[in-house]
Specification:
Radius of gyration of chain A: 17 Å
Oligomer: heterodimer
Shape of chain B: globular
Helix content of chain A: 25-40%
Mean pLDDT of chain A: 91
Number of strands of chain B: 2
Strand content of chain B: under 5%
Mean pLDDT of chain B: 90
Radius of gyration of chain B: 19 Å
Number of helices of chain A: 10
Number of helices of chain B: 11
Strand order of the largest sheet of chain B: 1-2
Distance between the termini of chain B: 45 Å
Strand content of chain A: 25-35%
Structural class of chain B: mainly alpha
Order of helices and strands of chain A: EEEHEEHEHHHHEHEHEEHH
Distance between the termini of chain A: 35 Å
Low-confidence stretches of chain A: none
Largest sheet of chain A: 6 strands, mixed
Low-confidence stretches of chain B: none
Chain lengths: 233, 290
């Protein structure tokens, strides 16, 4: 579904991604793990057309997207729920969801919003409230709900558990598991290694702008080097 | 002392002139709120719109109010093109770049108008110019009554566009969260250009309302925009209700100080109110706290 080959990108003269290759297949959950500053968020920004790639290829369902602008990528169904949520604080919850479907026809929008409300009943209670007044967990739900409104074929979730209470983190991973069970392909970009490996089928470990380790999640879980580096065991 | 009737008439006429100020400020504050730049070309673009209305009336014999229907789309297209193909690309995403580009643009436009129309002041002869509306014992200038009504209608229309349409919601979204907007597939350059275009269309409406009772020369816009800048800061940078209320307030203050201090000191009142507001409420009447 998503094929990234030798992707390079950076800011100014600094190269952040130094040749990343990875794949996500239809219906699978792939975790991209790594500590702060290894280039995970940059990878997502390149995938969504916000930061330009300097070289390499991105193919999504057969279409070349490495030079595409954001609207084209969203229309193709590659949806990125960013780190820090980036919801529209000055718009109501409902308006945030409506804008999620900005690249989709207006028909059926109300039904889609009802579906998102069914997944996140909290959002329905707060429908008319400004999104900026929501709690952190609710804002994360809204960000994911807005992503679902874009009719994703592949959903990239960047640090969905960041800054949430432990209880909320549990809830968030349970939700991601439900989304995955519905058949949606998910690329989960996280620092939370243990829980991400529980959820994902396969995982990539990123270090310093490169993929250094990859494989089925259950194998990586028992990988001695990974345990040492990320779990301190 | 003046009779109460004269005072009330003056204040009402001031209120209605303020409405046209508000319309000019509306475009300025919208552009500031979304693009986060002060558009220095606003005055020159108002002059362009006024010349368009003048041409439509003097050359083609159109009614000045009817001319708005043609000038507004033309200014909308001009604004879209300017932002999308000149201001945006020339500023390379830097805010101070945009500032200088709009300043440069205003100089080019003013001098182009000067070359085309010389520095003469031009007026249109219209039946509306000296018409008055009788409201009980009060006599109100007809162009200003129309201006007031059209401004209120334009503000309501703008509010509806911003709150009920997808592009309006996208404009509000881009104003606060550019990255989030890109990620739902909103083209930020397009939204910037649409915002600039709407601001220019507001100028076209203002130009149509001004021409029956005012003149145009290549420098005319600048005088209005100085007042409009004051209104934008007074009402709160980027606030649409602020621009409307601020504009009306400035109109009334200007009328009151002209009446009591004399015409030449009329504008002093504006800047007194301005300074006092900034001392008491630095974010303006409706401005969000930074």
């Amino acid at each position: 579904m998503l094929e990234i080959r030798d992707l390079r990108a950076g800011y100014g003269g600094t190269e952040v991604l130094r040749g990343v290759s990875l794949d996500v297949n239809a219906g699978e959950v792939v975790a991209v793990l790594g500590s702060n500053g290894v280039g995970k968020t940059t990878l997502n920004k390149v995938l969504s057309g916000v930061v330009p790639a300097t070289s390499g290829t991105i193919r999504f369902n057969g279409a070349a997207l490495e030079r595409a602008a954001a609207p084209e990528i969203v229309t193709a169904g590659l949806i990125h729920v960013p780190e820090g949520r980036k919801i529209f604080p000055n718009l109501s919850v409902r308006e945030n969801l409506e804008l999620g479907a900005y690249c989709r026809p207006r028909r059926g929008r109300a039904e889609k919003i009802e579906q998102v409300y069914a997944t996140f009943p909290k959002l329905k209670q707060r429908a008319r409230q400004y999104a900026g007044t929501l709690s952190g967990g609710e804002q994360q739900m809204l960000a994911i709900g807005r992503g679902l409104m874009s009719e994703p074929k592949l959903l990239i979730l960047d640090e969905p558990s960041l800054g949430l209470s432990p209880l909320m983190v549990e809830e968030m991973f349970a939700l991601i598991a439900r989304l995955a069970a519905s058949g949606l392909a998910i690329m989960l970009v996280e620092q939370n290694v243990v829980q991400s490996l529980e959820l994902a089928g396969r995982a990539y470990i990123m270090e310093n702008g490169l993929i250094t380790l990859s494989g089925p999640a259950h194998e990586l879980k028992s990988n001695a080097e990974l345990k040492r580096a990320y779990l301190g065991l | 002392m003046y009779s109460p009737q004269i005072v009330v008439e003056a204040l009402l006429n001031g209120l209605m002139l303020g409405a046209i100020y508000a319309l000019i400020a509306l475009g300025l504050t919208l552009i500031y709120g979304v693009l986060h730049i002060v558009n220095f070309a606003h005055g020159a673009l108002l002059t362009v719109a006024m010349f368009m209305v003048w041409l439509a009336c003097a050359r083609y014999g159109l009614d000045p109010y009817l001319a708005i229907l043609f000038v507004a789309p033309a200014m909308f297209a001009l604004g879209y093109g300017l932002q999308r193909f000149i201001i945006g690309p020339a500023s390379h995403g830097k805010d101070n770049g945009i500032l200088l580009v709009t300043l440069g643009l205003s100089i080019i436009i003013e001098n182009a108008l000067l070359a085309a129309f010389q520095s003469d002041t031009r007026t249109i002869t219209s039946d509306y110019s000296f018409k008055v509306v009788e409201l009980g014992p009060l006599l109100l200038s007809f162009p200003r009554v129309v201006g007031f009504g059209v401004t209120i209608a334009t503000t309501i229309l703008l509010w509806l566009v911003l709150h009920q349409t997808d592009i309006g919601k996208a404009i509000r979204a881009v104003a606060k969260e550019k990255l989030g907007a890109s990620l739902v597939g909103i083209s930020v350059p397009h939204v910037y250009a649409m915002t600039f275009a709407i601001g220019c269309a507001c100028l076209a409406v203002a130009a149509g309302l001004l021409m029956p009772s005012f003149y145009v020369s290549p420098k005319t816009g600048a005088a209005f925009v100085l007042v409009a800048f004051t209104i934008v800061v007074l009402g709160g940078m980027g606030s649409i209700p602020g621009a409307l209320i601020g504009g009306l307030l400035i109109g009334v203050v200007e009328a009151a100080s002209s009446l009591f201090l004399g015409d030449s000191l009329g504008q002093i009142g504006i800047f007194l109110i301005f300074i006092v507001t900034l001392l008491v409420r630095p974010t303006g009447l409706f401005g969000a706290r930074a």
